[in-house]
Amino acid sequence: MSANTLTLKVVSPQGVLLETEAVSVQFPGEDGSFGILPRHAAMTSLTESGLLRARTAQGEQIEYVIHDGFAQVRNNVVTVLTRSAEKPDEIDLERARAAVERARGRMLETQAEIDLVRAQMALRRALMRERLARRR
Would you say the pTM of this structure is higher than 0.70? Predict the structure, then answer.
């Protein structure tokens, strides 16, 4: 690792999905989006469903949709622990659209407050997956 890069690790219950050197990393945090560059101060944050982006030293753009978890920045290493992560080419657009419609339907039917929160979270995940799948 050079002084101008950092290590990005994306880990899910399935294992290490990505470990690479990057010049920048962006991820959705509980308090907004975070942009991380080499030699960033140590920090920990909850993550929300959204788009994780990284740019390698060779200029390659890496993207994953991540779903809830947390991120830690320490000693020039960004570790993102997430419930699940998908690359754009792994997302089926029709299934993503169907999930958006199901989530919207659940929000209309929901009586209990906890069910409404879960439906809102499902809708946010589905919309992010659909948006990324459309960009391929």
Answer: yes
